[in-house]
Amino acid sequence: MPIITKVDHERREVQAIAVGPVSYADVEEHIVQQRRLDSVSYREFLDGRGAGLSLSPAEVRRIVELLREMSREAPLGRTAVLVPSDYAFGMVRMLEMLLEEVFELRPFRDEQEARAWLEGNAAKGQAT
Questions:
Q1: What is the DSSP string of 61-120?
Q2: Burial of 89: CB neighbours in 10 Å, binned 0-12, 13-18, 19+
Q3: CA distance 128 to 78
Q4: How many domains does the chain have?
C-alpha cells in the first residue's frame, strides 16, 4: 500500500508515509482507514517525499467531497503534508483552498516547519 499509516491514540496523532505512485484509490483508502481506526480528528503528519501523486481534477473533487462528508460525522484534525515537488505542492495547496472551511490542511517543503505548524507553534499566516 502506497500510504503506510501509524496511529498513536495516546498522543492523538497520525504519522503516515506515502511511497511510490499514489492514486485516488490510495488516498481514499487512507482516509477510510482513518475512519475505521477512529483517528479522523487527530493531527496528521504525512510524509510524501517518496511518492508521486497522480490525480485528475475529477479525483481531487471526489477527495474534497469525501472529506466534507467525513467532517459532518466528526471534526477533522489538522494535516501537514511534506511534498516532493512543485506539482504535489500545487495539488495539496488546491485541496487546502477547497477545504479551508472544513479543516486545516497545508503543504510543506521543510519537515521542521511542517511539524512546528502541526503542533500549533507556527505563527498564523506564516508563509510555507
A1: HHHHHHHHHHHHHSPPPPEEEE-SSHHHHHHHHHHHHHTTTT--EEEES-HHHHHHHHTT
A2: middle
A3: 15
A4: 1
> What does the alpha-carbon distance between residue 80 and residue 98 come to, in Å, rounded to a whole number?
15
Rg (alpha carbons) of the chain, rounded to whole number: 13
Q: What is the pTM of this model?
A: 0.89
Condensed to tens digits (0 to 9), the pLDDT of residues 16-28 reads: 999 999 999 999 9
- CATH number for position 76: 3.30.750.24
Secondary structure (3-state) at 24: helix
Dihedral sign computed on CA atoms, order 111, 112, 114, 118: positive
Residue at 125 is within a domain: no
Structural domain of 54: 3-118
- Which strand (E) or helix (H) includes residue 27? helix 24-36
CA-nearest of 14, 63, 125, 106 to 3 is 14
CA–CA dist 47, 66 (Å, integer): 21
